[in-house]
Amino acid sequence: MIQTETQGRVAVVTLNRPKALNALCSELFHEINDALARFDSDADIGAVVLTGSERAFAAGADIKEMKDAEFISNYKTNFLGHWVEQISRMRKPVIAAVNGFALGGGCELAMMCDIIYAGEKAVFGQPEINLGTIPGAGGTQRLTHAVGKSKAMEMILTGTVHLSAHEALASGLVSAVFPPETLVAEAIKTASKIASKGAVSVQMAKEAVNQAYELSLSSGLHFERRLFQATFATKDQKEGMAAFAEKRKPSFVHE
Ligand SMILES: CCCCCCC[C@H](O)CC(=O)SCCNC(=O)CCNC(=O)[C@H](O)C(C)(C)COP(=O)([O-])OP(=O)([O-])OC[C@H]1O[C@@H](n2cnc3c(N)ncnc32)[C@H](O)[C@@H]1OP(=O)([O-])[O-]
């Protein structure tokens, strides 16, 4: 259900369940989680690209699989909790390369990533209200942070207002739009650039940016300053600054 490959220090994870538009059934999600966990602990990988097909990044959670679920078992088994935690725990950067539908859990999956690139025909939406439910994997929170309350409310409460790639770009949900056929290559290019930096400072930078969602400004600035100070314990900080002073390219060792 997924395909994985590596290109240099970049791992590419491709969702491949075409008959169901990459609907996120539990088997698919386990495979995604296993692959991400493997790449997160692989010292030869510096960044990950997560993508789907040209038709669909993912059309949401698998409705047919979950339609008969009950509250008690959802609660007892912490339904969705285990699925979503691995991606949130990723310490390495993940770029979502979104072509086609990113609906419901598909949109939420993209928003769990650190950067979203969209193909020109991408469609972002949270249609759960049409199924008698609500977003359950971060849609009400991350979409609101990304596009603001009014647009998030409009999308989530109607279930029919979706964002095109260019609307998603204008609203800040995605950082760039590319033709569908070059999208993944562009994502890999950016991931390679990130993976060429010192891995420790990349992870610290990711951690610090993510704290902007969790902390007050003064606590966030304090957190950032401590990590900044800590980078001076790394070989890569010594190398990076020495290389600048000596007018040469740095050669990072990721320590
Ligand atoms: C990261 C965390 C992940 C978990 C998140 C959980 C929480 C989340 O907030 C809840 C959801 O996502 S609720 C979900 C929110 N998402 C939605 O409500 C979107 C539901 N999907 C749609 O509205 C339409 O399929 C599209 C408009 C995407 C495409 O329309 P089109 O171009 O006419 O294509 P088509 O003919 O319709 O589809 C082709 C085949 O794919 C099948 N399939 C597709 N999506 C499926 C799904 N989610 N399920 C199962 N199957 C799905 C479809 O049945 C058909 O199979 P068949 O055997 O050949 O009949």
TrEMBL record:
One GO CC term, this protein: mitochondrion
Pfam families: ECH_1
GO molecular function per UniProt: enoyl-CoA hydratase activity
Entries under CDD domains matching the protein: crotonase-like
Domain of life: Eukaryota
Broad enzyme group: lyase
Keyword terms, alphabetized: Fatty acid metabolism, Lipid metabolism, Lyase
GO BP term, pick one: fatty acid beta-oxidation
InterPro entries assigned: ClpP/crotonase-like_dom_sf, Enoyl-CoA_hyd/isom_CS, Enoyl-CoA_hydra/iso, Enoyl-CoA_hydra_C
Catalytic activity, EC: 4.2.1.17
Membership in a protein family: Belongs to the enoyl-CoA hydratase/isomerase family.
PANTHER family, alphabetized: ENOYL-COA HYDRATASE, MITOCHONDRIAL, ENOYL-COA HYDRATASE-RELATED
Protein name: Probable enoyl-CoA hydratase, mitochondrial
Record organism: Coemansia biformis
Gene label: ECH6
